UniProtKB/TrEMBL annotation:
InterPro entries: Calcineurin-like_PHP, DNA_Repair-Maintenance_Comp, Metallo-depent_PP-like, Mre11_N, Pesterase_YhaO. PANTHER family: COMPONENT OF ATP-DEPENDENT DSDNA EXONUCLEASE, PHOSPHOESTERASE. It comes from Noviherbaspirillum galbum. This is DNA repair exonuclease. One of its GO terms (molecular function) is exonuclease activity. The keyword Lipid biosynthesis does not apply. Keywords: Exonuclease, Hydrolase, Nuclease. SUPFAM superfamilies: Metallo-dependent phosphatases. It holds the Pfam family Metallophos. CDD domains: MPP_Mre11_N (cd00840). Residues 1-196 form the Calcineurin-like phosphoesterase domain. It comes from the Bacteria.
Length: 421
């Protein structure tokens, strides 16, 4: 017996905010969730699996029209034409109350009940699938105690959309524990909701979040795909992760400590991107670059803001290989000086460095200083989200670093070679 376990497809997710990125491949990015699902169906057909488990959040919410539902149904029909069954557990985004439009059912596709956990038995395969669908977006109680116990002599699989005991970045839905799941006596728990792949438990039962099928934004990084599981004689013989994403997101933290020239920056960037995309040339890569470290480039950037970003973009233009889109370039460079010595100076440079040191050491003082100095700013509506007084501590430190670099550059504190003036 062989099956696929996938979750969090978010087909036709709107991916808000892309239009604000000049040059963003909007159509490619918004179509990625569909193409990843087609790749899942292709894999199921190629592997001749017996069934596919979809553990919630197939959609991102109610369809704006029938095109999303019809596309999904069309792919299910492809599976049924090859006698591959499908079981679905609805999650918080595609709960029964969320998806109001209806399409004719597809034979061989079973959606688990929203009333209580239920069981689907395949005698021919020796498998029992136990699952539950969200009736509404928020399910705040543990439903696992209501799941039936394992059926003796069968390979038992539980299917649920859940946050378990909580996962960073994810709301708490259908909370439960590994210990509670183990009481059911199942062989495998197919989970959904958490977008990062995680093997929660290796066996008795094997518990897996496969992650979402396609990353949709800069914090959903790395390979995305599904689990392909083979069962022999009632035991898991193999379980492998299969990447299916068509656009892969990355966060590249580019350490340029000691990098003194834009040419050196380009070479550093080329090496890092080549390593990042190695073995995945068939995909488009969306990369957020954070240029960081103590470098003389800080002076260049302070004197002419945007220089580092332009250099990175130019370096990408010179590269051959997979298709790459730079989602964003951030600079968090630091001034390469002896801060302790600089703070002792009796001139303006010493005054600036000493003040920054004091503010960096005290979050509350930093927030108060920014509120006092910048609280009177009136920003136009498109820029109100950039209000410095509403930023978190990390963003405030980054702003202070940038401000210090600019002031020191204008004071002539740092020479091009990084030596103190």
């Amino acid at each position: 017996m062989k099956f696929i376990h996938a979750a969090d497809l978010h087909i036709d997710s709107p991916l808000r905010g892309l239009d604000a990125h000049a040059g963003a491949p909007v159509d490619r990015l918004r179509g990625a969730t569909r193409r990843a699902f087609v790749a899942l169906i292709d894999l199921a057909l190629a592997q001749k699996v017996d069934f596919v488990i979809l553990a919630g959040d197939i959609f991102d919410g109610n369809w704006p029209d029938f095109h999303t539902g019809l596309f999904f149904r069309e792919q299910l029909v492809r599976l049924r034409q090859h006698d591959i069954a499908v079981v679905i557990a609805r999650g918080n985004h595609d709960a029964e109350s969320q998806i109001t439009k209806q399409l004719p059912a597809v034979d061989g596709v079973h959606v688990f009940s929203t009333d209580a956990p239920e069981t689907v038995i395949r005698e021919d395969l020796g498998v029992a699938l136990h699952g539950y669908s969200f009736p509404q977006r928020s399910v705040t109680h543990d439903v696992v105690p209501d799941f039936p116990r394992a059926i003796p002599g069968m390979f038992n699989i539980g299917v649920l959309h859940t946050s378990l005991t909580g996962r960073e970045g994810h709301d708490d839905y259908a909370p439960t524990s590994v210990e509670m799941m183990a009481t059911r006596g199942y062989d495998y728990f197919a989970l959904g909701h958490v977008h990062a792949r995680e093997v929660v438990r290796e066996a008795q039962p094997r518990i897996v979040f496969p992650g979402n099928l396609q990353g949709r934004k800069s914090n959903e990084t790395g390979p995305k795909g599904c689990e392909l599981v083979t069962v022999l004689d009632g035991r898991i013989a193999s379980a492998e992760f299969v990447p299916l994403d068509v656009v892969r997101w990355h966060r590249l933290e580019l350490d340029v400590a000691g990098v003194a020239t834009l040419e050196d920056l380009a070479r550093t960037f080329h090496r890092a991107v080549s390593q990042l995309t190695d073995g995945a040339a068939d995909r488009m890569h969306a990369i957020r670059v954070i240029v960081q470290g103590e470098s003389p480039l800080n002076r260049v950037e302070a004197e002419q803001p945007g220089t580092v970003e332009a250099a990175i973009i130019a370096a990408l233009q010179d590269m051959e290989g997979p298709e790459i889109w730079l989602e964003r370039v951030k600079t968090t460079l630091r001034t390469p000086i002896d801060r302790d010595q600089a703070a002792l100076r009796t001139d303006a440079v010493g005054e600036v460095v000493a003040l920054v040191n004091e503010l960096m050491a005290d979050e509350d003082r930093l927030a108060g200083w920014i509120a006092r100095e910048l609280g009177g700013l009136t920003l136009p509506p498109p820029l109100q989200e950039l209000d410095p007084t509403a930023a978190d501590a990390q963003a405030m430190r980054a702003m202070l670093n940038d401000a210090e670099a600019t002031v020191l550059a204008h004071l002539g504190a740092i020479e091009a070679d990084g030596e103190q003036a």
